[in-house]
Every structure is written in C-alpha cells, then in structure tokens.
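ok posting inputs for the magnesium ion job
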Amino acid sequence: MISNKLVIEKLPVSKVTGVTSQKAALLQELGVQTVLDLLWLAPSRFEDFRIQPWTEVRDGEKVTLNANIQGVPVLSRYGGKRSRVMARFFSDPISFQAVWFNQPFMQPLLQGSGEWMLTGKWDARLRQLTVSACERMDAGHTSVRAGTVQPVYPLVAGLTQGWVRKVMQIALEKFATHAVEWIPEEWLARLGLLGISDAFVGLHQPRDHAHGQAARKRFAYEECFMFQSRLFASKQANKKTGEGIAMSIDREAVRHMVLELPFKLTTGQKYVIKDILEDLEAPSIMQRLLQGDVGSGKTVVAAVAAYAAFTADAQSAFMVPTELLAEQQARAMKKFLQPHGVEVALLTGSTTERNRRELLAGLQLGLIHVLIGTHALIQDDVHFRKLGFVVIDEQHRFGVQQRATLREKGLAPDVLTMTATPIPRTLAITIWGDLDVSTLREKPAGRQPIETFWLRHDQLMSAIQRVKESLSEGRQLYVICPLIEESEMLDVQNAVDTQIQFQQALSSYVVGLLHGRLTNAEKEGVMRQFVDGTIHALVSTTVVEVGVDVPNATEMIILDSDRFGLSQLHQLRGRVGRGIHRSRCWLIADPKSENGKQRMQAMTDTEDGFEIARRDLELRGPGDYFGTKQSGIPTFRFVDVLLDAGIMEQARDDVADLWRDGKIWTDPQFSELRGRMNALQIVEQRMKD
Ligand code: ADP
Ligand code: MG
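and the output
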C-alpha cells in the first residue's frame, strides 16, 4: 500500500490550488517541485505585525502601530526614481510623521481620513516613522497582517510574499494534516520530536518560538537520518565491491623500519599505523582521515605507511598544497625512507622539463616508489606503474576533488587525508561520515609548551628585548606579517619594511625575508639558510604557515595578529615548540572588534588545537570555516552542521542500529520509513543482493 506521505513526495506542486504551471516554474527556481518540497520551504524569518503600545516603542527599532491619518500626504521627487511621501498620523496620544521612500503610488492611497497599520523604524528625535509595511484597517478593508506574525519566504522575481503565504496555507490545510508519520511513535517519544503534521504547522505558523524551534529540530533530524542512511548504504556498497587493492605487506620489514627511526613512535602513532596497515591489507578502498594537531607527528605515520606499501610492491603519492611544503616533505620522506631502499622523488611546477621526463619514465617503470608534489601529481600525464597509496597532506579541502580525480582515472588507491586543523569529533562524523577518522591526541614526548602573550603595538620593543635573550642562546625567531606590498586600502605593515625594522632592532643578527613574490629558488635559498642557522630571524608572510619544521626556532612574533583567523594563528604558532627548547609566541595586536579580541584571548588561553578549532567554529560559523561549497560539505535545508552535531550523532547511531540488526527490513513499525528510503533510492543497493 502506498501511503499519503509518499504521495506528497511525488505529488507535483501544481496540485495545490492556485499554483498555475507558470507559478510552478517559478517555484522550481526555489527548488520546489513537489507538495512536500513546498511544505519544506522554510521561512527565512518572521515578521511581527502585532500592534504595540507606545510604552513598548524604542528609538531606532522596528515597531507596528495602529494610527489615523491627520494631514494631507505630500509627494516630493528628487531625481531619477527617488521620491518621498510624507503624511501626518495620530496614534493616541502622539502625533507623528510617516515617511515612504520611493513609493510615489502611496500618495493617492493616503488621501482623506483612515485607520492604518504602519510598520517601520521609529526615530524618536524626529518623531518620524520610516514605513516598511502598511495596511488599511478601517471598516470595508480586510486586514490580513495586522496583529499577526507572518512568515517571510525566500522569493524569486514573479512571486510575492502574499501569494506564497496563501498557497502555503492551502498546502498546510489540505496536505500537511494528512501527512503520514514515518518515525515510529516510540522514537518520537524517545527523541522528543514533534509529529510530522504538528511540525509542518510549527515551521510555518508557530504558536510560539519554542514550537518553531521544535519543528526545525524534527526536520533537522529527518535530514540527518536520511543523510546518514545514504552514507551507510554507500559504505556498505563500497565494502562489498572490494575493488581496492589488497596489499601483502611484509610486516616484519615494517617492524624493522620502525625500529630504525630516529625516535620512538608515540602510542597514538602506533595505533594509527596499525589501523592504516590493516586498511592497506584489506580489499576495500581505504578512506581515512588522520587529524592531529600541528607537530603531532603525522608525516612519519605517512612514511611508515608508504614503506608498508613499498613492501607490497605498490607505489605511493604524497600530495601537498604548496611547493615549499612539497620540498620539505620530500626531505623528510627521503630521510625516513631512502635508507630502506625506497626511491623518493619530487615533482613540482618548477621541476625542469628534462628531469620531469626522466622522472615520469621512472614512475611508469616502477623505479620510483614514492612521488611527492603538489596536487598536479595525480593529473595530466603522470602515470604510475601501480599506485596503491595516496596521502593528501594539510588539505583543507578534504580531498573530495582529488578522490574524484583518482576515480576518473580508474585508480582505486587507498587514501589517507591528513589535516592539522582538527575539528570536533561530532562534526567530523557529519562531514566525513564515509571516512574513517583517526586522531593523534598526544604530541611526541619532550615537547615544550608554547607560552603565548598578547601585546599592544606600543609594547613591541619589550617583546623584542625578551626575544633577544633566546637569540643570544642560539635560538631562532619567526616574525610573521599579514600582507606583502599592501593594497592601498589596508594599512598593514609590509614584510619589506618589517625586515628593515627588525634588522635595525637586531643589529648583531642576520634577519632574512620570505614572501610570496620571491621565486621558488629564492624561497628555497632563504629557507635553507634558516634551517642551517645562517639566518637568525626570519621575517615572513604566511608562506611559512603550514608544515615548516625548524626545531631550533623557538620564538615567534605575529604582527597585526588580529588580521588572522584563529585556526591560521594556531597553524602559525605550531612552527615553534617543535624542539626541546622552551618556546614563546608573541601576538602583537590592537583589535578593534570584539571578535578580534576573542581570537587573541583564545590563543593565550589554550594551546589545544581541538579547543582552538571549536572556538574558531563558534566565532566564524561553519560556512566560513570550511570555505566555499567546493569543500564538499553537503548542504542542508534544516541542519546547522555546527549546532546540530548532537542530532547528527543521534541519527548516525539510529541508522547504524537499524541496519545492523536488520530491523529496517523486518520490523513492521519501520514500514513507512522503508517506503520513504525506497523512494529516495537509499536502499536500492541492498535490494540488489
Ligand atoms: P605534523 O603533524 O605537524 O605534520 P610533523 O610530522 O612535521 O608534524 O612532526 C613534527 C616533528 O616531530 C618532526 O620533526 C618529526 O620528525 C618529529 N616527530 C614525529 N614523531 C615523533 C616522535 N614519536 N618522537 C619524537 N619526534 C617526533
Ligand atoms: Mg605536517
């Protein structure tokens, strides 16, 4: 039997009285095709047209008044389409001026006497109301909005608020009340969710704020549930196909290689390596995210995994976002791997044509085992003999695109994505539900904490004095500035000036300069001098942001640090505190905004990358935090990935329960849900078996 619920899902929106084919086309631009889509079209906000007494009216705020016309409306035009209608009104006991901007048609409507509802912004000093909405209220006029709270819908040209409200009202009466519930009674109670009909009403015409919130929560849960079901189904399908490579790793050789590392692995590193090796040996495709704070030692994990792949006769690719980083990772990988007969090569945009040809040939023949480079290394004319393992490092974009590229090339290597911008576990599940997540919580032993200070610009000299103590002990310094060759608009110090300024202040030391306008060879030269200690202090833009590893550098001064985001500051700070010496970070900023102050405060409060990430998300919101839509984060209608992390986790557990016990297939109380998932083609895969 097909339920009403499914009918609503399939029923075209034109079945709602008043929706002509022309209007239906316009609604489609809003993503509305079916009656259910229409009911899901949530108001972006509500407009309050409840009449207020003067005692509640506040200067500069929006008010709704009930008032009578007192004077003759006056229209003034001033150039182009700009105009103003002014009229005197009386609302007991105050007489005031009402103003309509650019609505000349209001003048004739305001002639004569009459009672009106006026909504607008109140200016107490001028005794003036700038009207944004109005409606005639005296006898003979039916006022629709006065005294009510009205939903405000997203619109496209050709649709009006009034029309959408009317159509929604019809849809609510005719369809929402008959909607069939797919969540079993028992679950609704357990989760404290509204039933479906009540939730539709709450979405569009909430009795109060709490009702509206509860409605959203119910639909957010629905969305999370379906999202997690999809992830679960695709993961199951993925496991079954087993199209990945099952490597036969020489475990004994790996153990040997680990013993020969220059340090002992932390317990966390050992666990992560164990998981990765098991994934490599399994026939399914590994999709694992390794998140670990800056300096937690992710590179060596990747190196051991690449070595394991090598023992199974598989090649590895190591993708990093910048050339500078690629060079550094290549150095690290060579150090770890070359003693064990692994051939490591570097491929970047500045590899000469001759070297490139040679390298590509070696790769195709399998003479090169590990290739490191920027993202171009899995594209173009790069052919591996047998690519088995891919590492995507410091990738804020989550490697979604890269995975797609690999698949397009018909390759199915195991993929490890490493990120130093750890995010809360709940959020990781939300976004990477189809990835396994490993976390490096501890840092290698012997790491010194980083002391962080926040100083004003006029205290910079005192910071420099303190830094000099460290320099005299042989340590090194980073000075970070926000921009190079500033745009006229932003008054930021540029790196060139800063270098001169610091060279003066630190006259007995060599102060180097690194910025994005240098050629790669120049950058590399400067970095090499910093690594070998001929440069004592390095003034740099954010090109040193990720991954640079100079353990002897223990001091960092970040100028105009309020110009950086919190995660970025944490990344930068992670360049120090990498050796055995005490480290310090000096934030120089006079933030004007509250947000800026909070960022500085967060940095001095904690060194924990997870805590920093949490606060960053809080301050910025997920949209900003993850960048644009390209980040591969699903877009939701009702779910706020940050605030609703709890709901997402709940849904994930519920989905796992249902599928694990097979309840979804047998239990009659889930028949509605089954039908719904069928309609969304979520269970298709399973049905094929
Ligand atoms: P990140 O996770 O930020 O990429 P790295 O991999 O660059 O961190 O590691 C930071 C530094 O710590 C490197 O110099 C690395 O060689 C070193 N390191 C990694 N693991 C350990 C360990 N178990 N013990 C001591 N030092 C380690
Ligand atoms: Mg790293």
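notes: Residues 263-266, 269, 292, 294-300, 420, 444, 549, 578 surround adenosine-5'-diphosphate (ligand 1) (CB under 6 Å). The longest strand covers residues 83-91.
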